[in-house]
User: Fold these one by one.
Assistant:
Number 1:
Amino acid sequence: MVPTYEVDSFSEDTKAFCTIDKRAGVYKQRVTSRDVKIEDKIYQADEWMNTPSIILSNIPRRLHLQQDHPVAITRQLIESRFPDYKTHNNLFPVVTVGQNFDSLGFPADHIGRSRTDTYYLNKSTVLRTHTSAHQADTFRANESAGYLISADVYRRDAVDRSHYPIFHQMEGARVWDRDALDAGKSFAQTVWEDVAKIPKHSITVEDPNPSFHSERNPLQDGHSAEEVEAMGAHLKRSLEDVVVAIFNAAKSAAADAGETPDTPADEPLKVRWVEAYFPFTSPSWELEVYWQGDWLEVLGCGIVKQSILDNAGVPNKLGWAFGIGLDRIAMLLYWIPDIRLFWSTDPRFLSQFSSTAPIQRFVPFSKYPACFKDVSFWLRSSTSAAGGLSRNATTTSHDFHENDVMEIARDVCGDLVEDVRLVDEFVHPKTGRRSMCYRTNYRSLERTLTNEETNELHGRFCQQLVEKLGVELR
Ligand code: DAH
C-alpha cells in the first residue's frame, strides 16, 4: 500500500518528488520513492533505472562551462576556430532513447543501448551518451548553417586514468541549402567557395582514401559524387584547422617545459584520415594525430545521413557533422596525467589554468602512494541460476559484465580509486565455475590514504560485489 499524505505538510522540495492525486477535492500526494529529481525536472524511474546517485550528484558541475577549467578552455579554443557557428552549451543531459539512439539510426540491437553501457532513468530515458543526441533537434530548430554543441556525456565504462563515467564532447555540424543557392551556382561550387575561406595550414596530411567507396564508405542516395567531394573537403579542412590549432598549442606547452625525446619541438605535426563507420553518417572518417610516438584518434565525422535531415523537416539541406572528446584533448594540451583531476576542486589543480594565459604544462603536485589490493571471486555457473533466484542478486558467467564491477568500485570509492583491472580469470575444470581476480589501485590525487581507509574501502568494495552481483568471494 503506497502511503498518502496531506500536501500542505510538505515543503516545496518534497512536493517536487511527489505525484499529486486529486481525491474528493483534496490534494493528496503519493510519495514515489522511485522518482528521480534532476535539477528542476522529475523522472519516474522503473526497472531500467541504473544510474547511481554519485553520477546524478555530479550533473550540475558542467565543467565545460567552469571558468578557467581546462575542459572549458579546450572548448573555447576549438570554438574560436569556428567564428560563424552558433554555440549551444547548455543543453540538458537527460534525453530520450529516441534522441540518443533512434533519431540517429542506431540499430535496435546496438551494444550502446544496453544497460551495461548506458545510464538509464527508465526504459525510454537516458543520460546522453554523446552530444550527437542533439543533432536532430538542432537541425529541426534550423537556427544557423553551422553549430557547435558542447556538453557533459555519460557512459558506464572502465576505471582507469583515462576513463571517467562523465566526460565532455563537442558536436559540430555545417549544412548547405539546396534551395538557397546563388543564381547560376551549383551546390558543389557553393561549397568549394566556402572551402576557400578556411585558413590554410602547412602540415602534412595523409589521406589515401577515396572521397567515398561503394562498399566500405558509400555515398547516400540522392547525393552526387561532386557534392560529397566538396562537403568532404570542407569537413576535412575545417577539422585539420582545429587540430593544427590544438597541437601547436600543445607543442608550445611541451617546448616551454623543455623538450623530451618524444616531443621534439621542431618535428612537424603529422595527421591522417582513416575510413570509419557511424550509424549517422556516410561516408565517415576519423582523424588521427601522431603524438608521442602513437597515432591518436582525435575525432569522428562524416556526411550527415539524409534521413536525419529529412526527419528534422529540412530535407533540402545537406551537410557534415563531427564529434570530438574534450577531456582527452585537454589532458594532452596540459599534460594532465589522470582524468579524475578534472573533478578536483583543489586550488593546487585549478589555479594552474587560465583562459587568458598561454597554455602551460600542468605541474603535478606530489604523487601520493598507490595501494594495490586484489579481490578474487567465483561467478555462479550459468546452469545453477535456473532455479528462480532473484536476478539482481546473482550474476552468472552469462550475464556478468565488467562495467558492473567498475561501477561498484566508483560507488564505494568515488575518486579514491585510480584503476581497476582484471588480472586473472579461469574456469574450474570440474564445476565449470568461472573465477575472476580484479586488482584495484586505491590512490588519492590530493593526499596519502591511511591503511585503515584503504582497508575499509576494499572491505566495502568486496561486500558490495557479493550483495549486488551475488558472487562468492574466494
Ligand atoms: N557521437 C560519436 C561518439 O560519441 C562521435 C561522432 C562521430 C559524432 C561522427 C559525429 C560524427 O557527429 O559525425 O563516438
Note: The CA atoms of residues 37 and 208 lie 50 Å apart.
Number 2:
Amino acid sequence: MTKVLYPGSFDPITKGHMNIVEQASELFDEVVIAVLQNKSKSLGFFTLEERLEIIKELYKDHENIKVVQGSGAAVDLALLYECKNIIRGLRGITDYDQEVQLAMTNREISDNKVNTILLFADKEYQFISSSMVREVFGLEKDISRYVDPLVKEKMLMKRMKN
Ligand code: ADP
C-alpha cells in the first residue's frame, strides 16, 4: 500500500489544499493530512484542535484520507506514518525556492528515506492561500470562492464568539 503525507498549517484549509488532496488521493492508496502547529501563532485564526476537527469533518466519508496532528519535523511524521513521500503544493514561482529548499533539507535530514513530491493545483485554485482567505474574511468579504462551505461556517461561528 502506498501512503503519502501532506503536511501543512491549513489555517484554514482552502480549495487549493483540497484540490491537492484530491490529486494526491488519485496517485496514492492513502493520504495522511498532517495538521501542524502554526509557525507564528499570533497570526493564526483557528487553534490546532479546531483545524484538525474541521479537516476530519470534511473528509469523514473518505476512507483513504486520514487526518492527524503533528509537531516537530514533517519527516519524522512521515516515518511515523510509514510514508516514503511528502506532498507539497506549488502556487507558482514564489513558492518554488522555499519548497525546493524544504525538499532538499527533508531528504537530507531523513537520510534519504523521505522524498518530496510537488503538485500544482488546478488553474482556478492556483493563487488561493490561507493568509489571503484570512485577510479577505477580516475585511468582511465573501470567502465562498476560496473555501468549502463548512470552513466558511466555522469561521463565521468563531468570529461571532470573539
Ligand atoms: P505551510 O505553513 O506548511 O506552508 P500551508 O497550509 O500554508 O502550510 O500549506 C501547505 C502546503 O499546501 C504547502 O506546500 C503549500 O505550498 C500548499 N498550498 C497551499 N495553497 C495552495 C494552492 N492554492 N495551490 C497549491 N498548493 C497550495
Note: Residues 3-161 form a domain with the Rossmann fold fold (CATH 3.40.50.620).
